Amino acid sequence: MTDKEIAVLNYINLKKIVKTHELSRELSISESTVRRILCRLDRRKLIVRFHGGATAIPEDRVDTPISARLNVHTKEKELIARKAAEKVTDGSTIIMLGGTTVFYMCKYLKGKSLTVVTNSLIVLDALKYEKSMQLVLLGGVYNNDEAELRGSLTSNTLRKLSADYLFTSATAFEEVRGFLTSHIDSIELYNMCFQVAQKVFMLVDSSKYRKSDVAVTARCEDIDCLICDSGLPVEARIGFANKGVEVIIVE
Questions:
Q1: CB atoms near residue 175 (< 10 Å)
Q2: For the domain that residue 95 is a member of, what is the CATH number?
Q3: pLDDT value of residue 128
Q4: Is residue 59 a contact partner of residue 81, using CB atoms and an 8 Å limit?
Q5: pLDDT tens-digit profile of 163-183?
Q6: Cβ neighbours of residue 147 closer than 8 Å, sequence gap 6 or more
Q7: Contact status, residue 133 vs residue 204, Cβ threshold 8 Å
Q8: Which of 68, 143, 168, 204 is the most buried (most CB within 10 A)?
């Protein structure tokens, strides 16, 4: 994204709903340029454009692209990611499976001697200059919204691997159904990851608690440890613990 596109997107996310002339005035960009930027952002599903302006994507939309979710609930994601990275020891092989919170781990892993297996291009980009790491990019079909690779090729590659830890996330979660996603084509990949990883960490912020989605990616029995922020209700923490999940709360 260009600097102007980032500035426009950030302003829309801040104000929630704006007119074209306001963006032009506040950001010192011509109205014709603003309109072109809004068209591009709308095509990427980062905003919703209407005649004369645009609105932000609602924060509770679980199917928004990863680029739009990176700047949502950042404080909670940072805390969760830092705690997750503390669990990783030198010499480990870890799987980092998509998602914004998993991506936030990258900065806290730098300097460690690791083998990192991922399907995420933004994880790959964040770690590509780490000389102490061996990076393994899983093959597959590219998904533009999530900037990751999926499909049978991805799962087939995983069958040949073994990992100490899996770090993953979900778009919704609760004690009964477990952890959910809107991406049905990822279920096979999740199942394979659970088979090859020795310990599974689920990284989710509390805004996703009791949201609904279409597909279950993990039952509670598939997860060893849930790392979440302090917004998770006490009764939920007890519920997950009763199902054998270690619950770590960050604040």
A1: 18
A2: 3.40.50.1360
A3: 95
A4: no
A5: 999 999 998 999 999 999 877
A6: 66, 67, 120, 121, 122
A7: no
A8: 168
Query: Domain containing 193: what range?
Result: 68-250
- Tell me which DSSP letter residue 46 carries: S
pLDDT score of 147 more than 90: no
The answer to whether the CB of 218 falls within 8 A of the CB of 181 is no
Q: Classify the phi-psi angles of 244: left when phi > 0, otherwise alpha if psi is within -120 to 50, otherwise beta.
A: left
Closest by CA position to 242, among listed 198, 176, 172: 176
Tokens of 118: 């991922």
Residue 62 falls within a domain, yes or no? no
- State the Cα angle at 140 between 224 and 95, rounded to 5°: 25
Nearest in space to 225 (alpha carbons), one of 198, 196, 186: 198
* Residue ranges in the chain assigned as alpha helix (H): 3-15, 20-27, 31-43, 66-69, 74-86, 100-104, 106-109, 121-127, 152-158, 187-196, 234-242
Residue pLDDT, tens place only, 183-202: 777 888 999 999 999 999 99
| Residue 62: per-residue pLDDT | 47
CA-to-CA distance for 181 and 203, rounded, in angstroms?
13
Confidence band for 55, pLDDT divided at 50, 70 and 90 = confident
Whole-structure pTM value: 0.74
Query: DSSP string covering 160-181, please?
Result: T--EEEEEE--SEEETTTEEEE
